[in-house]
Inverse folding.
């Protein structure tokens, strides 16, 4: 069988035949052309995924693709943006058709699920590396930034924490769980749900927002730094999934929830006046409060501050 050349590969595995009307030109030209509605701003974010760093080296290609797109799209949700498209820069050791077919199937499934079409990319030969750039839009002035948190705001999280770390432990054979829990964690790892509707809802409610990718302590720390405030977290309020919380000892569970990362939940701050409304929404949990000062402090259920907590993941 003749080996695939670069352009046949792009046509076969990376060309979307059903682009939505706002994509005027997609894959196949020097650049993509997008129509942006009046009074909107463009939101852009890029994320790189490497084997053994962001996913286990033996991860199935379809899962590599779904995970990369979901993780990248998470940044759009955190800004209150809705997706308009994404580009992919793919470095591959070889043009393996089976690998490419599975990767492409996963990528297009995730793109359809997130309503975020593939509009371009770049393909090169080398050690496996995947960068996804997502583009989104938000009405002018309504992007939710990290810098707006104020003393007195409550801190909220959009779902269970620690799932990312628990999933990694499961995939690496450090955690044994029943079938339903395995399915739950694998889904959370390969296709973490991205709640664009929540981001949109929060545009006029949240004072600051971030998606939890490096760990709650680290990411909430970024909000505090950008907003020049401090955060008080209630350890006992952090929501943990019933799928795994009884299978690990509680210091481990707390460590995963605080610093495990890869959760892709939205952590946001909002004035107290919105609390009743937020409480009534499914999955939103109040986990602490913003105060004057700097840094993130964690309190146990007796109100005692806990020290010696390690922060989130850092590449350098
Ligand atoms: P150029 O040399 O002008 O940068 P390329 O030859 O790299 O263009 O790519 C040709 C077209 O294919 C472009 O529209 C580019 O966006 C698209 N493309 C390249 N690789 C991919 C990929 N892996 N997925 C999607 N689109 C891709
Ligand atoms: Mg060109």
């Amino acid at each position: 069988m003749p080996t695939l050349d670069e352009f046949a590969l792009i046509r076969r595995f990376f060309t979307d035949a059903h682009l939505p009307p706002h994509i005027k030109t997609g894959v196949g030209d020097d650049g993509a052309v997008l129509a942006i509605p009046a009074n909107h701003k463009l939101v852009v974010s890029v994320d790189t995924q490497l084997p053994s760093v962001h996913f286990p080296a033996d991860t199935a290609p379809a899962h590599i693709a779904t995970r990369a797109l979901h993780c990248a799209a998470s940044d759009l949700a955190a800004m209150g943006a809705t997706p308009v498209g994404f580009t992919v820069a793919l470095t591959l050791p070889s043009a393996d058709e089976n690998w490419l077919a599975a990767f492409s199937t996963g990528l297009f499934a995730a793109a359809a699920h997130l309503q975020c079409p593939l509009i371009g990319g770049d393909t090169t030969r080398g050690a496996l590396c995947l960068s996804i750039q997502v583009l989104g839009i938000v009405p002018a002035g309504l992007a939710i930034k990290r810098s707006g948190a104020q003393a007195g705001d409550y801190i909220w999280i959009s779902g269970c924490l620690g799932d990312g770390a628990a999933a990694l432990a499961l995939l690496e054979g450090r955690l044994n769980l029943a079938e339903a829990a395995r399915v739950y964690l694998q889904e959370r790892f390969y296709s973490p749900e991205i709640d664009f509707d929540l981001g949109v809802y929060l545009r006029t409610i949240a004072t600051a927002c971030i998606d939890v990718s490096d760990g709650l302590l680290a990411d909430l720390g970024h909000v505090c730094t950008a907003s020049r405030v401090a955060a008080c977290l209630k350890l006992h309020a952090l929501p943990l999934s019933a799928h795994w919380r009884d299978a690990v000892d509680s210091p481990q569970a707390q460590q995963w929830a605080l610093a495990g990362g890869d959760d892709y939940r939205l952590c946001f701050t909002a004035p107290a006046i919105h609390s009743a409304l937020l409480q009534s929404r499914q999955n939103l949990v109040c986990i602490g409060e913003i105060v004057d000062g700097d840094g993130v402090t964690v309190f146990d259920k007796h109100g005692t501050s806990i020290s010696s907590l390690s922060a989130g993941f850092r590449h350098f």
Summary: The first strand starts at residue 23 and ends at 25. The pocket of adenosine-5'-diphosphate (ligand 1) is lined by residues 10, 14, 27-30, 88, 90, 118, 120-123 (CB under 6 Å). The first helix runs from residue 6 to 13.
